Amino acid sequence: MKKxxxxxxxxxxxxxxxxxxxxxxxxxxxxxxxxxxxxxxxEVAKSFEAANTDIKVKVEDYxxxxxxxxxxxxxxxxxxxxxxxxxxxxxxxxxxxxxxxxLLDLTSYLEESGYLDKFYESRLAPFTFHGALxxxxxxxxxxxxxxxxxxxxxxxxxxxxxxxxxxxxxVGLKFKEQGKYVxxxxxxxxxxxxxxxxxxxxxxxxxxVFDEEANVxxxxxIAKKILSYYSDAVVKHEIANTSPQDVxxxxxxxxxxASQVVSDFGPDWYVGFLKANVPEQxxxxxxxxxxxxxxxxxxxxxxxxxxxxxxxxxxxxxxxxLAFLSYAMLENKDNLVxxxxxxxMIPPRKDLVDAEVxxxxxxxxxxxxxxxxxxxxxxxxxxxxxxxTWPEATDLxxxxxxxxxxxxxxxxxxxxxAANELRQLGK
Amino acid sequence: xxxxxxxxxxxxxGIKHKISQHYYRFQSKWxxxxxxxxxxxxxxxxxxxxVIEAFHxxxxxxxxxxxxxxxxxxxxxxxxxxxxxxxxLLNSTYFAIAWLLILIPISLLLAIAINALGKRSxxxxxxxxxxxxVVSLVVVAIVFRMIYDRSFGFANLVLSWIGISPLAWLEQxxxxxxxxxxLSAWRYIGVDALYFLAGLRSLPSEIFESxxxxxxxxxxxxxxxxxxxxxxxxxxxxxITVISSYQLFTEPxxxxxxxxxxxTLTPALYLYQRGFSFLDLGYAASMGLVLGGIIFILSFVxxxxxxxx
Lengths: 427, 309
Prior knowledge:
Chain A has 427 residues and is an alpha/beta fold.
């Protein structure tokens, strides 16, 4: 009898434990992330969990390449995929390949919830394929012109007078006499070399690699004009320094530290890169809108970007994932403000114009309100489109187009060759 | 009666003997399998299974994520016409030749020097020269990018001391190739020196004593005794060096990404690009199998050469 009672006790204990577990069951969703937005996601996840006790959010941080490779493998095999993932813009097109995009189409959700119109259209374009929106963009990445105010002043150059990129050549020639460069451009010598400057110029001028219907437009007149300018800046005028380095690594910034490169242009995240890599020049840098390609043309551009996407799993976790995505990136303006504070990147939302946080003076830029300047460029950011052969396009841009342009090869020939190769791949 | 009852209690000694005989037979029959089972399970799961899967995939054309259609041997046929793949193989051959010319002589000399130093100092230098191989390659690549920087790099600073103009280490095709060769040499010379050192320490001292009695000088002893006796080690180092050159991935991936152009592209790097950047998984699988075949042949040659020894 004694033994039997002991056994019943165990059965009762397990029954109680089971009931407690069922009563307190939580839906767990997993978020894969990389880079600076991870810390912000972790913070948002905590406040989301406090408000939604039935959902647990697990944010996992990975190195950039590893996260994207793992995500592709998980989506390909159908095993181990997270519920949400941050996908960088250069990796997005990989998901557009094949007969099905294995990411949740968020178009109708955004339309019905009324948030679609709150986003700058230019930022939704690359994350939209065949009319379906596959992620919510974190950042707009508007580009501005950065310059060393002390050196420009010493040389009597008023940056406000530089209205077009053609006028900028004269400024470059003036600095060339002093052994200084007004720009640093990637020379395509390594696959990690930067092609961002060419890209920013190209879309600022109204060009691109693909049009809205995914047709290759890399060899149109706009692209030829831009590549000629790029090549001339390096080979003919010698006003731009070249580098095979990655903008995210210290060697890229060595000529800036030595005051050899005295100006540049880049997106919002360039601010953080300048501060981290050239800290000793605090107070000497300033920023303004970009010179245009023609009077009245765009005065900003963009480079980079990341979106938060849902990898469909089952209705319960998809619902929880959508709730988290909505909380983090749609409903709560405070979250968007905290994203800017945490990462320095401008959220792509029109309804943030009045937020005072962007009016904080920045000592690195001599007290200039850099956040407001970046935000003011938002309507000037042009749209661009991605297509399934985007990875091959960026490979060709570096390996053939920019490498050739920096060696003085014919820009028109380089672009036509690359565009034809892309068209062949797209068939 | 009592004598036949063992200390374990009530099992008769005869039965116990039978059990132990049976157990011994079972043990001698199955124990080897049990011991090798963990390896075999992992081998089947993580090597054999992927190889079979890759072989299967190599007959398919993948259209992005998920969808694929059977194309027979088309991927292999395309591979025979792929100029970039052959360029990558050629680059690997350059790496192999350059490493052999740099690594083997320097590491052998290093091993002889360490051997001559005695145990205490020798151990210090062993650790010193081996240490580059344990540093994370990511860190190494970032540091070497700085070293090779055209305007502010240490390599050009050193060249300027002897009056040589700055070189664009990572931007000129031949120099980019040389940059990776030098990085790898710095990283692996210590490892190869350890192989040679182990070989040197295993050589019988009597032969050297006999040579000394017969009047052989140091150079003769080295050329006619040390070098021939180290032949198995030398062949081993040659073969692992050649195999490593065809497997090279991380150094060019982090330093040059295969550029400029395709000057430092390796088969493994190209495979990764086709597989993960372009999602051409079937083609990447066929490339992997061909590369595996090349490495298998090289390993086979090594075995043959070592057997001859």
